[in-house]
Write a structure and sequence with these properties.
Radius of gyration: 20 Å
Shape: globular
Number of helices: 17
Oligomer: single chain
Order of helices and strands: HHHHHHHHHHHHHHHHH
């Protein structure tokens, strides 16, 4: 469907479309003010938002099958392997729910349909969590999700990880422990690395001292600088599947993701922590769900810092980065509900999107 878009510009073309949608919505915002009780604005925002939701699913789900999206061709290989297997292979022992899911689709459909369904399941939880938490203002949360720095990558490349983290988000769409547990278990059986944010989620349910959690995050930086290699080896000894190879090796191949101590990644992670801390301590945001979101992010990100020297450490970083949109936009939208400060919502949305565009440009050079 989108074969006419040059593959090397496929991601950038998506950002251009997002910019168009944002400009269109902000045009209505300036004219009618960002107030949910404004009929014209609300109707226009709803139409624009739903079009963007549908477009994102189709654009990512119907992308051409190409090595441009790196792991996509690997997934095609697994899909064909499962498609021509008479029964579910016994050698796929980890992340079995994901492979059962792929196996089930391969019985009936082609690989293209698998990628489309996966894109739908990847994006829909972001919509649902935004809708549940922010009601009529859901667009700003959803837009933050789909303009996040790693959103496109984990929708087209690391799709197993991306799907698992999206399912995890659904734990923030309910207050019932049973349903939270179900979503967390599903996320874990899709991708075993979700054990890290799951553990962080459980800890954050019982420990909510923001200052101490931030202090723990800060302490992890010098610990990683001094004992990073030993910590990587220790973590690798507890991991028995292919993910251990990222920890056990220092892959400096030119085609690999840059390894080493990533100060740029730490600065990126810290930006959300600064916003979260400021919202809680200076803006006096008292919100139990935000405490849970922020605590989960802090603990997960701190664990990643301990293994930051690993090859492809961005894959471990994403175990916290997928929460950044909520960490950043949640305080603004909750403040808006009491202060009706529409400018803050607009500025944060613009800044967040601009930052993603800048990061995308820098890492594409």
């Amino acid at each position: 469907m989108f074969d006419w878009v040059p593959l090397k510009n496929y991601e950038h073309a998506y950002y251009l479309v997002l910019a168009y949608f944002l400009i269109a919505l902000l045009t209505f915002s300036i004219k009618y003010a960002v107030l949910p009780n404004k009929t014209v604005y609300h109707y226009s925002a709803k139409v624009i938002s739903n079009i963007l939701l549908i477009f994102s699913i189709f654009y990512i789900g119907l992308r051409p099958i190409s090595g441009q999206f790196i792991d996509m061709t690997t997934y095609v290989g697994f899909f064909d392997y499962l498609r021509f297997s008479s029964s579910f292979p016994s050698d796929l022992t980890s992340d079995r729910l994901f492979w059962y899911y792929m196996y089930s689709i391969s019985r009936v459909f082609e690989a293209k349909t698998f990628f489309f369904i996966t894109a739908f399941l990847y994006i829909l939880p972001m919509y649902w969590v935004s809708k549940y938490n922010f009601k009529k203002l859901w667009f700003f949360s959803f837009f933050s999700f789909i303009t996040a720095f790693s959103f496109f990558t984990y929708g087209t490349n690391g799709i197993r990880n991306g799907l698992a983290t999206s399912i995890f988000l659904l734990a923030f769409s309910t207050n019932k422990k049973l349903f939270q547990g179900i979503w967390l278990l599903i996320a874990y059986f899709i991708h075993g690395s979700m054990l890290i944010p799951i553990a962080a989620f459980l800890l954050s349910n019982y420990y909510r001292n923001t200052n101490r959690l931030v202090a723990f995050w800060l302490i992890c930086i010098p610990i990683s600088l001094v004992f990073g290699s030993s910590i990587q080896t220790l973590f690798a000894s507890f991991i028995t599947d292919d993910r251990a190879s990222y920890l056990a090796s220092n892959n400096n191949d030119e085609n690999a993701y840059i390894s080493g101590f990533r100060w740029d990644f730490i600065a990126y992670s810290a930006s959300a922590i600064i916003i979260g801390w400021y919202s809680k301590k200076r803006l006096n945001l008292i919100d139990r769900r935000y405490d849970l979101i922020f605590g989960t992010y802090l603990i997960s990100n701190a664990i990643w810092i301990l293994v930051i020297n690993a090859s492809f450490s961005n894959r471990f970083a994403y175990l916290s980065w997928f929460l950044m949109p909520l960490v950043v936009i949640y305080p603004a939208l909750k403040q808006y509900q009491t202060t009706l400060n529409d400018k803050m919502v607009i500025y944060i949305t613009l800044f967040y999107f601009s930052f993603t565009l800048l990061m995308s440009l820098i890492y594409s050079l």
